[in-house]
Amino acid sequence: MAQMFALMSHRNGNLDESAIELAVAADKINANGEVTAIVAGSGTELEPVCRAAAGLFHHVWKFDHADLSYPNAEVVRMLLSQVLPKDAVFLALHDTFAMDLCPGLSIKLDSAYTPDVVGIDGPESQTLRLIRQEYTGLVHAHVACDLSKGVILTLRPGSFEPGENISSQKEGRIVDKSGQIGCMSVRRRVEQVLEARVGDVDITKAEVGLQFGRGIEARENIELAEQLADALGAMLSCSRPVVDAKWLDKSRQVGSSGKTVKPKVYLAMGISGSFQHLAGIKGSPFMVAVNKNSKAPIFHKADVGIVEDILEFIPQMAEKLKKFQ
Ligand code: FAD
User: How far apart are CA 242 and CA 252, in angstroms?
Assistant: First the structure.
């Protein structure tokens, strides 16, 4: 079995929680195999990141270079194409950075590229069987990759929950590989990073999240959702189309291009369950979904699914809850 590598995301010296998902997925590919975490960046903030990664992976390769100070996919691709073996099995989280990085990397390494993987069937001899979703989750596609030729795969956030085996701490070996960084001719530089506004509320602190999507249908219906949020003591947030329609502020958007929330209870009203939306929900909350389409992908994730029109359901539920107040 070829060597496995996992790309670590990190920020301000903190290893992103997605590292655990990568460890879980690597374990599914080869439970007895050794995995090398790749930590690329610049300066002293790499030290705590490497130590945290060493708790999850057998080896950690550290690459410290001024050009890696901001995660620029062009530069990371140059680095990885210099240091990865051609037959590497390379895992990364399916986020906008990996979408930028991995297609070009697979061309450089001449490897198979399988993005947005939601399941791994485990390898049979030299074939790795992966599951992807198509048509916004309505279809599962099974993909076979030849392991002897190298595979690059990105994992859909939230698809590989930690198991007991991952909780056992590893004592990975950290090796500084910065000396192996060759020539990096950067054509694309990040000039400035602007922090997103927190806005009028901080939805990331919500214990109970009431989120609604395009199914709310019109701006004037938002009042219904606000009444239910009040009755539940929930914080109101939404999917991206609601923000695009300017019905709510961007600070209330959950998802890969919005905020990441970690509620204990998550109520999804009129939300289809796109992976970009679900990427913003962490910590496996108890999930209740209401949608008038019984085939909506959100029902694959929900603990409780209710097939209803939210414009009828929300006022009735708010009314019932008032009786308990
Ligand atoms: P839809 O997919 O249109 O779903 C609406 C749902 O409501 C449907 O399932 C429908 O059956 C149901 N419905 C309609 N009317 C009713 C009713 N009366 N009662 C009950 N159910 C009803 N999306 C995000 O949310 N957050 C992000 O951060 C994000 N980032 C993105 C980043 C990129 C790069 C891209 C390309 C997309 C991103 N998206 C994001 C958009 C994402 O792909 C989806 O388009 C979006 O999440 C869909 O939102 P939705 O579920 O509200 O709408």
Answer: 9
